[in-house]
Each structure stands twice: as structure tokens, then as C-alpha cells.
């Protein structure tokens, strides 16, 4: 009976612990007694990306909950006995988990990185940052990732469709002129509806920034959110925060984009015979039967057998290209150590014109260079110094005789059947000019007395100007924590300067004459039917081909310096891990 009882014990018992340090397996076969892995004690400190201790971090052996665990104290310190072959896992809400294998070194410095989810839980508000659940005003925030997806070179256009209640519309599509106008919750005044724009806490133009340099944009819409800005925030407030460096090795980013810009809606060409028939209908309705086009004239417009006298000009096809090219390239590097963090970037944007180039080098265009350097320096554990400098250099080439908006207005209203865009060289063979015998050249057409000038003449004249605009933005911030007085208390100061320098870097002037053919004089047999246009004298005019008149002007057209001063006392503290108390006393001067 005793042997039966021992056999049952042998079949049911697999292992026992001996002296708390070794284990031995009881086996009837050849199994041997193997000791467990030796335990070692690991200790260290857990910090965040700002080198601040992180309390309440769970320290466990990965995959072995039976080994127990511990948590870091208020100084971020921990100590735990673990098996020598174990992997220790560190986890805390709001941070990415970290794993460390046990090695010979038992004194650890563990750095936890904040999760993006935690960042999304905060919102930039007036003169500070708050968690989403504590925000009671109407605030919408757009992150840099959403701006990068748009692919546009204009930060205002990048906001289109991203924010409810934000109206985004452009008045011009010309190169360098495509920045949009923003309205927060529609029109609220007859005198001005532009929202207040704050870039890194200072009132500035956000169009001077590259979208890749922006970390977030907050749009404050209602009175509770904009109250701290007073009357200036009546039309809403847009807060732009630029990127800063993060702890870690340098991270390089290179982005190159090549784009094609095409018109969304191009007016369909109405041919000359259709226009003439519509004019006949208008003449009949006005009882002006003598002004109607005859059937013979309508046939001339239809078959285009004499395109100089009976033109059919498609102004959009003649003047406008099917697309314009654009190039966007930027380079950035960010990183830092426990003491210093940095973000550096440089960008280049080229926008071509959709207008055709008649004379080489005279077309419109825009070239923009942006640059930024943001530096954060922890002078001590309680003193933080920040220096930010950024700017833009914009070189813009445009027509000298008219602006883009007026030019397209002229092209839109220019008549189809009144005058040709230009007289080709063969026109002087068919219709010789008595004042210039033997001349064979292209001549720009005049407006034949019509209300609107020939739009082609603006492109035919190599008459343009180049404008250079430089803007520089500099910020200096100093923050001093006063935790030795009371936890969460700090003071800060800010100095900012915004400068603008604008000048005409080059002005090129050269004008070719315009010409009309007096068809009545031609029909009567007169030899002087070529008539100079409105820019020349009607009689005794002799055109002289003069060289280009190029003027380079280094004198400033506009110089602006704006300074900003700010001083604040800030208090932020959390009680019992649940209650957040914040207070702010601030003074600023602009």
C-alpha cells in the first residue's frame, strides 16, 4: 500500500521549491534538477524628453507578471530585482512604452517619449495651451500633418476645407498673388472683417511662413475664446505656432514638388460669325437696320478669307497657355540634446505665369525663398531661453503697364471681331505702308477706336518691373520657473521685431507702336491707310527703335519696423491628479 501511495505522488507532483532559491523536478526518468536564472537588482531614473523626472511609471518584467514590479517615485527613481535574462518594460499613460534587456549595467537612465495622442489632447489658446476637455470656447486646431497633405505653397490656401466656419477665397491666381483672404464665421462689419493673426504670439502676416514650418494653427471663433485679445479679436483670432526642435539625433527632411496649375474655368470662345449675328439681332431690336452686317460680310467672318479686315480672335487661346508650372522645395533638420534643441529650415518656391511669353525674359513670375531657425536652450533646470528668427525674400516680376486683374478684365471684354491681335509681316506685302516702304515686320494691332485696348499689346511690349520684398521676424523668449516659491509658478518675457524692406529692383521700359488700318481710306484708293495707334501722334509720326531702358533702383519703396514687448506671470498646477488650476497676468506693448 505504501508503494501504491508513493506511485500516486510520483504521477501527480511535478516540482517543489527548495529553500526558496532552487527548484527540483521529481521524475521517474532521466530528468535532472535545473536551478532558475539568477536575479539581479536594477535601479535608475525615468525622465521625459525635457529631462524632467516622470513619476508613476510602471516597471515590470515583460511576459512574467509573477515576478512582480514597481513604480517610479516622485523623483522618477526605481529599484527592482529581476532575472538576469529578463526584459524590463516601462509604461505610463501619455508615453510610448520602453523596453530594456538586463545587461551587465544595472544603473539605468530611461527616457520616455510622449505619444502623439497626448499631443492631440492639447489646444493652443490665447497666450497659452490647454487640454481639450478644459476648453469651453469655439476653437479648432489644424496640425502640421494636415497642412502637408494639401501640397500647396500658400499657408492660407492650405486651410481651405480644414476648419468649419472659416471662409477661404482668393481674388487673384497670378504668380505670387494667390494668397487667400480668410473670414471667420462670415462678414461681421462694413469696415473690416480680417481676423487677428498671431505668429508665435506676435501679430504678423502668416503668408510669410512656409507651410512646412508650421506645427499647428488654432482658430478662435467666439467671444469666450477671443476675449483676451480685446477689440482686435472681434473678427476671430488665428494662432500660428512654428516648429521647434525635439530631443534626439538630427532628423533631416527633404521635400521637392513639381506642380502644374491650370485654369478651372476658361470662357468658351464665341466665333466671329456668331457675334455678328447676335449684333444683327440687337440692331433689329433697336430699329437700327442700317447698322446690320450684310450677308457678304457674315460670309467673310465665317470663312476667314480676310482675317485682317474680318478678324476672329480667340483671345484666351492666343494669350494664355494651357498650364503654368510651379516648383516647391524645402529642407529642414531638427534635433537636440538635454540642454539645446534646434529646428532649421530653408525653402524655395517658384511660380510661373500662365500668360504666353512674346519676348524672352519678360513674362510674369514669382520666386520666393523662406528660412527659419528656432533654438531652445535650457540654461538651467529652471531657466529656458528661446531664440527664433525667420524670414522671406520674395522676387516678383509683373507687367509694367497694367496689373494682373486689369489685364484679365481687358482680355475678357476685348471684342472678337473688331481688330486683329497683330498684323503679321505678310500684311505689309498685301497692304504696303507708304510711310515705311519695303518694311516687313509684325505690327501690334490697335483697338480701332474700341473701348478696350488690345490685350496682346501688353505682352508684346517688353515692359516690366521686378519687385523685391524682404521680411525678417525675430523673437527672444526667456522663461524662469519659480517652483522654489510655489510649485507651478513662473515668469516669462518676450521681445519681438518684425521688419519689412520693399523696393523696385529693376524697371525695364520699351514700347512698340500700335497700328490700325483705315479700311475706308483703303477702299477709296488712298495710299496712307496705315494709322498709328492712340499712343502715337496721328500725323508726322516716325517710329524709332530705341534700346531697352533699364533702371535699377536700390532706394527703398517701403521700410517698416515693428517691435513687441511682453511680460507675464504664469501659474499652472495640478492638485490630486485631477484638478488643474491656471492663472495668468500679462502685459504687452506693440
The global form is elongated
Indicate the percent of residues in helices: 10-25%
- The end-to-end distance, rounded to whole angstroms, is 101 Å
Instruction: Please report which band the strand proportion falls in: under 5%, 5-15%, 15-25%, 25-35%, 35-45% or over 45%.
Output: 35-45%
Integer-rounded radius of gyration? 38 Å
What is the number of domains?
A: 5
Number of helices: 12
Uncertain spans: 1-33, 116-120, 537-541
Give the averaged pLDDT, no decimals. Answer: 81
Largest sheet properties: 10 strands, antiparallel
How does this structure look, described?
The protein is mainly beta. Helices cover 14% and strands 41% of the residues. It has five domains: 1-36, no CATH class; 39-116, Carboxypeptidase-like, regulatory domain (Immunoglobulin-like, Sandwich); 121-242, Ferric Hydroxamate Uptake Protein, Chain A, domain 1; 273-313, no CATH class; 322-352 and 364-401 and 466-506 and 553-589. It contains twelve helices and 32 strands. Strands 19, 20, 21, 22, 23, 26, 27, 30, 31 and 32 form a ten-stranded antiparallel beta sheet that branches. Helix 6 packs antiparallel against helix 7. The longest helix has 14 residues, at 272-285. The chain starts with a helix and ends with a strand. Residues 1-33, 116-120 and 537-541 have low confidence and may be disordered.
Amino acid at each position: 500500500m505504501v508503494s501504491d501511495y508513493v506511485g500516486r505522488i510520483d504521477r501527480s507532483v511535478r516540482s517543489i521549491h527548495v529553500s526558496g532559491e532552487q527548484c527540483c523536478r521529481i521524475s521517474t526518468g532521466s530528468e535532472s534538477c535545473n536551478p532558475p536564472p539568477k536575479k539581479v537588482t536594477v535601479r535608475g531614473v525615468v525622465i521625459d524628453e525635457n529631462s524632467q523626472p516622470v513619476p508613476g511609471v510602471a516597471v515590470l518584467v515583460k511576459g512574467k507578471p509573477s515576478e512582480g514590479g514597481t513604480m517610479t517615485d516622485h523623483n522618477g527613481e526605481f529599484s527592482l530585482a529581476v532575472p538576469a535574462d529578463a526584459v524590463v518594460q516601462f509604461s505610463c499613460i501619455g508615453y510610448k512604452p520602453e523596453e530594456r534587456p538586463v545587461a551587465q549595467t544595472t544603473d539605468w537612465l530611461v527616457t520616455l517619449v510622449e505619444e502623439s495622442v497626448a499631443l492631440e489632447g492639447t489646444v493652443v489658446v490665447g497666450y497659452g495651451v490647454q487640454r481639450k476637455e478644459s476648453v469651453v470656447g469655439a476653437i479648432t486646431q489644424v496640425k502640421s500633418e494636415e497642412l502637408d497633405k494639401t501640397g500647396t505653397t500658400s499657408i492660407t490656401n492650405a486651410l481651405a476645407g480644414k476648419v468649419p466656419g472659416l471662409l477661404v477665397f482668393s481674388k487673384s491666381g497670378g504668380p505670387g498673388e494667390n494668397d487667400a483672404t480668410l473670414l471667420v464665421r462670415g462678414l461681421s462689419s462694413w469696415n473690416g472683417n480680417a481676423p487677428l493673426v498671431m505668429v508665435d504670439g506676435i501679430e504678423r502676416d502668416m503668408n510669410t511662413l512656409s507651410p512646412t514650418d508650421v506645427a499647428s494653427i488654432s482658430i478662435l471663433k467666439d467671444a469666450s475664446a477671443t476675449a483676451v485679445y480685446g477689440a482686435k479679436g472681434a473678427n476671430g483670432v488665428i494662432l500660428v505656432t512654428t516648429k521647434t526642435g525635439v530631443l534626439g539625433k538630427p532628423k533631416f527632411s527633404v521635400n521637392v514638388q513639381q506642380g502644374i496649375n491650370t485654369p478651372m474655368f476658361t470662357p468658351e470662345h464665341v466665333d466671329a460669325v456668331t457675334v455678328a449675328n447676335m449684333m444683327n439681332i440687337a440692331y433689329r431690336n433697336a430699329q437700327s437696320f442700317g447698322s446690320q452686317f450684310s450677308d457678304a460680310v457674315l460670309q467673310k467672318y465665317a470663312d476667314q478669307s480676310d482675317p485682317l479686315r474680318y478678324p476672329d480672335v480667340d483671345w484666351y487661346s492666343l494669350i494664355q497657355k494651357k498650364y503654368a508650372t510651379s516648383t516647391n522645395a524645402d529642407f529642414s533638420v531638427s534635433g537636440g540634446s538635454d540642454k539645446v534643441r534646434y529646428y532649421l529650415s530653408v525653402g524655395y518656391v517658384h511660380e510661373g505665369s500662365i500668360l504666353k511669353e512674346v519676348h524672352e525674359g519678360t513674362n510674369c513670375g514669382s520666386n520666393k525663398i523662406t528660412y527659419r531657425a528656432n533654438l531652445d536652450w535650457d540654461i538651467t533646470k529652471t531657466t529656458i531661453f528661446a531664440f527664433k528668427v525667420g524670414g522671406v525674400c520674395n522676387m516678383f516680376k509683373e507687367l509694367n503697364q497694367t496689373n494682373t486683374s486689369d489685364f484679365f478684365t481687358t482680355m475678357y471684354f476685348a471684342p472678337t471681331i473688331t481688330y486683329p491681335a497683330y498684323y503679321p509681316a505678310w500684311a505689309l506685302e498685301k497692304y504696303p505702308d507708304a510711310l515705311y516702304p519695303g518694311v516687313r515686320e509684325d505690327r501690334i494691332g490697335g483697338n480701332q477706336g474700341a473701348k478696350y485696348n488690345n490685350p496682346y499689346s501688353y505682352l508684346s511690349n517688353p515692359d516690366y518691373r521686378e519687385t523685391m520684398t524682404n521680411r525678417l521676424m525675430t523673437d527672444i523668449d526667456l522663461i524662469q520657473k519659480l517652483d522654489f516659491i510655489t510649485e507651478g509658478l513662473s515668469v516669462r518675457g518676450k521681445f519681438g521685431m518684425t521688419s519689412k524692406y520693399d523696393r523696385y529692383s529693376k524697371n525695364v521700359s520699351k514700347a512698340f507702336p500700335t497700328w490700325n488700318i483705315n479700311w475706308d481710306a483703303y477702299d477709296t484708293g488712298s495710299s496712307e491707310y496705315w494709322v498709328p495707334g492712340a499712343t502715337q501722334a496721328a500725323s508726322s509720326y516716325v517710329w524709332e527703335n530705341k534700346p531697352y531702358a533699364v533702371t535699377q533702383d536700390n532706394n527703398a519703396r517701403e521700410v517698416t519696423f515693428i517691435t513687441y514687448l511682453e511680460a507675464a506671470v504664469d501659474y499652472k498646477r495640478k492638485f490630486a491628479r485631477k484638478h488643474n488650476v491656471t492663472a495668468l497676468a500679462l502685459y504687452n506693448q506693440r
